[in-house]
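pasting for ref. prot 1 ->
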Amino acid sequence: MDAFAVAIAAGLSIERLTWRHVLRLAFFFGFFQFAMAVLGWLGGRTISVYISTYDHWIAFGLLAVIGGKMLWEAWSGKVPEGHSDPTRGWTVIMLSVATSIDALATGMSMAFIGVAIGLPSVVIGVVAAAMTVIGIRFGSRIGRKGGRLAEVLGGVVLISIGLQILISHLHA
């Protein structure tokens, strides 16, 4: 669901959505969800103690920075050179990591209970990719109608998801 919500925000911020944007974001989100589940499973008990103490801070920080950048761009009224495309470069990597940290924990929990990771990780990746396609297309449709307001909404959504991750881990 995090990937779906972030995909909506990405769709809000892309002026002219193409299938390249859609497929690129779906690939990255699906791949990172898959890979993080496998890495979590491989890491198992050895690193879970170290990661679980700050994984929520990493996810929050990445989403807050990207959401803050979207808000800054919307409020400043200036479109920076090469207006940021959330499906390219470091932005897509940061979004992919931020939305897949929970998959890392899921993989670890599967290792703890002795479940094989092959099929579950593929399912996680495919579902994340499919939800990303739906989310980015939905966000784009809203964005075409909302303009700058849509970009503000996208930034607020990203920051809100980061806060939700942070709060849910701090109160767990």
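and prot 2 ->
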Amino acid sequence: MNANQLQVYLEEKRGVIELALADLLDRGEGIPSRLREAMAYSLLGGGKRIRPIIALCACRAAGGLEAPALCAACALEMIHCYSLIHDDLPAMDDDDLRRGRPSLHRAFDEGTAILAGDALLTLAFEVVARDRSLSAARAREIIAELSAAAGDRGMVGGQQADLDAEGGEISREELARIHSRKTGALITAAAVTGAIAGGGEKELVGMMRAYGGEIGLAFQIKDDLLDVEGNEKALGKAVGQDRRGGKATYPAVWGIEESREELKRAVVRAEAALEGLGEEAEPLRMIARFIARRES
């Protein structure tokens, strides 16, 4: 699979995810119209959909069909979307733009944005629990992985550690710990839950956990670099926010050149984690490379 083929592949899988997300959002009855509108504004407002795509690819690499992983993949995107809504709030990163449009709290209001994020987070667990293509045992495993990745030991804990580190000096090791939770946990969960949905054995799930950890690191380093040297139009948001907010980032702690080198090493380690898997894992290898060269 070359780079052009990967783009076609990603577009195809993005389309599958978009349709599934819209369908899941439409199933809910009794949702206040403004809340539903706010949820749709953020959830269906574009994005790379890289986390759900990783889940689908991991399911395939485990030898499964994509269908059992689709609800888990959508749940991952809902959790990711909720985190972006809350990150953009004035009490957090105070961002006015997201994906080239006003952030949800700017397009609606802060209260509605908080509630829309809360609703997406809880909907994520509901769609997995109600997924009839999964056995009860696999659904429980997936919910446990998503809960750990999103909660106090994962993304939320990482966000708190990130807030605590603002304006101070931290070590490279502490920076890695922060971002392994803040960004890496949910990306790792994408690979792991996809493998579980596909019926992967313990060894393969372990391989996906190692792979996810490395591409989660790569994703964060690239995000940090783009905030320094990215194009605002391509990113759909302002650059330089991390520096102005005193955030702990890889360029700030490692320097730009060393950050680029660590990004390359993370991709190499991610591919090494898939050693022994055949052609079915090729999309995962290509995604690792894509993450390192993306411009948004």
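The domain at 3-293 is CATH 1.10.600.10 (Farnesyl Diphosphate Synthase).
The chain has a mean pLDDT of 92.
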